[in-house]
Design a protein that fits this description.
The complex is a heterodimer. Chain A is α/β, with parallel strands linked by helices. In chain A, 35% of the residues lie in helices and 19% in strands. Chain A has helices spanning 3-23, 77-93, 114-120, 134-138, 167-178; strands at 48-50, 56-58, 66-72, 98-104, 127-129, 146-150, 156-161. In chain A, the strands form two sheets. In chain A, strands 5-4-3-6-7 form a five-stranded mixed β-sheet. A two-stranded antiparallel sheet of chain A has the order 1-2. The termini of chain B are far apart. Classes of the chains: A alpha/beta, B mainly alpha.
Amino acid sequence: MNRTQRILLYVLILVAGASWIALSADTGASATTAGPAPQAGFRAPDFTLKTPSGASYTLAELQGQAVLINVWATWCPPCRSEMPAIQKMYEEYKDDGFIVLAVNSTVQDNPFDIPPFVEEFNLTFPILLDETGEVARAYQVRSLPSSYFINRQGIITEVVIGGPMSEALLRTRIEEALK
Amino acid sequence: MLVLFQNLFAPPRHLILLVIAAWLGLTLAERRAESHGIQKDDLNTLAFYGLIAFVVGGRISYILQNISAFAKSPLGIVSINPDLFDPFGGLAVASIAAFVYGQRKGLPFWNALDSLTPFFAVLAVGLVLSHLAAGTAFGMETDLPWGIYLWNAARHPTQIYEVLASLLTLSLILLVKPNTRPGVLFLSFAALTASCQIIIQAFRGDSAFILDGVRQGQVIAWVALAVSFVMLEARLSSKKQREQAS
């Protein structure tokens, strides 16, 4: 193939590429228009859970606030390790409209271990009991801890699987969700 | 099969796929390095410095982009969280480090890139497999019979398209015989990868859009393709000129 033929081939490929880009342009493909799913860019699946004292929290009612859903269990070492940092960030950002929903995966935990755990770490944010595994299923939780950062519009901005999350990681993700 | 794979390599285990791919890719590149005029030891050292620079550079870039958060939590600088990382910043720093090392060792630039091409190609396979495991880089909703159920909808299996495209690219790269035109292998790999991205990005459901629904990823890939063609032609022409001169 000589130089002219090669250049012609390059131009043809580039024109075909540009045409394909124009043809496949689609403003309606944004993930946020789709139904809820536990993935960044999607609406966070809604749920209603109760605290050990019987108070009820519904995620949809928290729209307008940035939310961290942290799925945890008392026996999970990284869950224990990251709780002090989560508590610290909650205290620092709660006045800016940030809330933590600490969803205990009660189906795989001992409910009697929860109060001493909360006391040990002086946790002041809502502890919710996922007694039926409803939230674990809706959020397709495969590892503990699993954390979902949700912005004021109810869209998941970041998913962090595993832990422990450091203060710096929490700060960057919370500030992003608060924007 | 797909569910088994996704369960086996569910995040954060999907990162194992990248580590395996990096190891396999480096082994393959090492075997072919000498045919490109690069010593195995030089290639290994180049990859070592590149990897260190990638890790350090990715963290530094992330810190610089989130400086206020790290000012309040300085211990986070040395945190082991892999999420505190900017892969593009890491890639830029790794490229600079590898370039500086190559210049200091007197390694021919294009030969070094050619010898690293199998590494890049295998790493690309690992990257798209990690997307498949994590469910990231997902496709648009579709009614097509080969759609996969992901994130509560039947979607284009864009991760599988990418796996097939990256395997095809790797196969083509391996079929190319080492020749006397340094740079052609790497630039062909770059052109093939960019072409695949232009096609596959059209089916992605997580695209960032620019003007009138045009996908940013496709535009970047198109520019990369154009640059690859210009450089490829420059390499082929310079070789031809040398042959004519001799």
